[in-house]
Amino acid sequence: MPEAPDLQVFAKNLNKLFAGKQLQQVKVVDGKNLQDDESTLNAALRGTILKEVYRSGKELRFLFSNETVLGLHLMLHGKLFVFDESNENKHTIVELHFEGKGLAVTDYQKAANIKLNPIDKEGIDALSKELDFSYLKKALQSRTNIKSRITDQHVIRGVGNAYADEILWEAKIAPMSVSNKIPDEKIKALAKAIKSVLLNAEKEIEKDHPGIIAGEVRGFLKIHVAKKEKSPTGGIIKVDKKGGSTYYTDEQELFT
Q1: Model pTM score
Q2: Which of 89, 169, 219, 254 is surrounded by the fewest CB atoms within 10 Å?
Q3: pLDDT tens digit string along 119-128?
Q4: Are residues 134 and 240 in the same domain?
């Protein structure tokens, strides 16, 4: 599933392609899992100008000139494709037809979805200035393990499985640590690591795949890479496959 760095880059590239263009039509190809039907979407959006595409948590937002927002969640396997006259991509959920070009949302599992004027979860966005030591100190008052806590979108929006491992390795906190047992100095390290890991990842993705609008670029990650055996500082990478793969090393301190 795309996480904050991926979506940050997608948003930038979608703005280059579509911002300032008029939306001429929304075509729903497979709408059985959509909340809004084709007629509702067109009534709200047809003829409006796309002002901006931006990220919110692990979703994209398309803001139009009438202030209507179209939310897009790609889920695990959703992808975006640009097309010219007609869309030939398989497993299409919906097509957005702009002046000159179109954007197809696809997903072979049919889980990707769009929604008018979505409401964000209550968590603080991972790249928000509000995500600081004070916020984390309160948010970590839980017996939940730290990886589960920082991937809970009601606590922090934008961090998923892969980047949680990278962040916790950077902060040298074991992912199995009990959240409310983590000391203040490590909470400060965690707050710093969240920002630095995500922002650096965004730069790496832009550098290697400058026009990307779909997929997940992970090869540059330090530990959450299947074929990598050691961390940059020599720690042997271990994988816990319970409840989804967690990558970590013994360089990370366990708090219980």
Answers
A1: 0.95
A2: 219
A3: 998 899 999 9
A4: yes
Look at the block and give the residue holding tokens 């013994």: 250
Q: Is residue 139 part of a domain?
A: yes
d(CA 154, CA 121) in angstroms, rounded, equals: 6
Distance of alpha carbon 113 from the chain centroid: 14
- Does residue 187 have a pLDDT over 90? yes
Provide φ and ψ at 167, rounded to 5°. Answer: -65, -45
Residue 243 has pLDDT above 80, yes or no: no
Final residue belonging to a domain, choices 86, 116, 146: 116
Distance in angstroms (rounded) separating the CA atoms of residues 217 and 4: 12
Q: Output the domain CATH number for residue 167.
A: 1.10.8.50
Q: In whole angstroms, what is the distance from residue 155 CA to residue 140 CA?
A: 9
pLDDT tens-digit map of 137-172: 999 999 999 999 999 999 999 999 999 999 999 999
CA angle 235, 237, 239 (to 5 degrees): 150
Q: Which residues contact 28 (CB under 8 A, 6 or more apart)?
A: 34, 37, 38, 41, 93, 94
Cα–Cα dist 18/12, whole Å: 10
Of 58, 104, 41, nearest to 198 by C-alpha is 58
- Decide if 253 is inside a domain: no
Q: Which amino acid is at 245?
A: S
| Mean pLDDT score, 98-114 | 96
What kind and span of H or E run contains 253? Answer: none
